[in-house]
Each structure stands twice: as structure tokens, then as C-alpha cells.
């Protein structure tokens, strides 16, 4: 599509690259195609940048994921909850739960809001790393204040408590 003479919209590119990631998990291919798009003068939209962040997270290249986040600001976009949750999830996937907590505090201090999925992701990451106490503290911290807690969050913590033989 990049070599064809007809104009292809960023929406079409994004749709195709999103499908490639979902069906084949070809993260490096998607990133390569994304770079080629930009080289050919196609300015990425926020969704395309989110896809790039997700690819870098799955490739354990968090520095590149955060550089794409910086690019979001430079282009003039604001990161969405999806962007922030993807970065939190990437940090957790890469065993950097403390960095995920610090990032959470940083974005909240900057006035961004996270949702139930964001907090569920953070709680899940804490539990997977054996940080049950921190997960419980996060649950208590958000309960009824920041977001509505849900059964997934509680189930995640209960599961970890069972694995820790605390229940």
C-alpha cells in the first residue's frame, strides 16, 4: 500500500496494522511499516501511536514506548487512558511494577485520569509480581474515590492472597 500511487488514509493503515498485531503478533513488522509510513510523509494519528507503544511494550523495549509517548505530545495530541494503560501494562509485563506505580503517580499529578481498566491492570501487575500488600493498598486507595472498583480487581487480589496462602 505504501508503494501504490492512490492515497491511502491513516485510518486504513491503522486498521491494517491493528489487524496484523491482533492476528499474528508481528510487532516488529508493524513497527517497520509504521516507520515507512512516516518516512513517506504520513503523519500518524493517536491510534497508530498507541499501536506502536503496545508493540514496543510487547518487545520489552519500554524506552522506545516512552519515546512514542513523548512524540504524542510533540505532535500535539494528548495521551488517552488507553495510551497510559498500555504503558502501565508494559511496565508490569516487563517486571517494572515500581516504575508502573511511579508512572501512575506522575500522570495523576499531571491531571490525567485513569479508569477501571487502568487500575485493574496496575493491581494485576502488582499481584503477578507478588506485591499483594501494595495491590491491597491500591485497592483501598481507589475504592469509592478515584474509580469504581469491580469484581475483576477483587478477584485478582483474592487469587493472589490464595496463592500466598493468606486465605
From TrEMBL:
Short name of one Pfam family: PPR_2
Keyword list, A-Z: Repeat
Gene3D superfamilies xref list: Tetratricopeptide repeat domain (1.25.40.10)
PPR-type repeats, residues: 80-114, 115-145
Entry annotated with the keyword Repeat: yes
Cited PROSITE patterns: PPR
Domain of life of the source: Eukaryota
PANTHER family referenced in this protein's UniProt entry, alphabetically: PENTATRICOPEPTIDE REPEAT-CONTAINING PROTEIN 3, MITOCHONDRIAL
Protein name: Pentatricopeptide (PPR) repeat protein
Biological source species: Medicago truncatula (Barrel medic)
Amino acid at each position: 500500500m505504501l508503494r501504490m500511487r492512490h492515497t491511502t488514509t491513516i485510518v486504513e493503515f491503522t486498521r491494517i496494522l491493528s489487524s496484523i498485531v491482533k492476528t499474528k503478533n508481528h510487532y516488529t513488522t508493524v513497527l517497520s511499516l509504521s516507520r515507512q509510513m512516516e518516512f513517506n510523509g504520513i503523519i500518524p494519528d493517536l491510534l497508530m501511536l498507541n499501536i506502536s507503544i503496545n508493540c514496543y511494550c510487547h518487545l520489552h523495549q519500554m524506552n522506545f514506548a516512552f519515546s512514542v509517548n513523548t512524540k504524542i505530545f510533540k505532535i500535539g495530541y494528548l495521551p488517552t487512558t488507553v495510551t497510559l494503560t498500555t504503558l502501565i501494562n508494559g511496565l508490569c509485563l516487563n517486571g517494572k511494577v515500581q516504575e508502573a506505580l511511579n508512572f501512575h503517580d506522575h500522570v495523576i499529578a499531571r491531571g490525567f485520569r485513569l479508569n477501571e481498566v487502568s487500575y485493574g491492570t496496575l493491581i494485576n501487575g502488582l499481584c503477578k509480581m507478588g506485591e499483594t500488600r501494595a495491590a491491597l493498598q491500591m485497592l483501598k486507595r481507589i475504592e469509592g474515590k478515584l474509580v469504581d472498583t469491580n469484581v475483576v480487581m477483587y478477584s485478582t487480589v483474592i487469587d493472589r492472597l490464595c496463592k500466598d496462602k493468606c486465605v
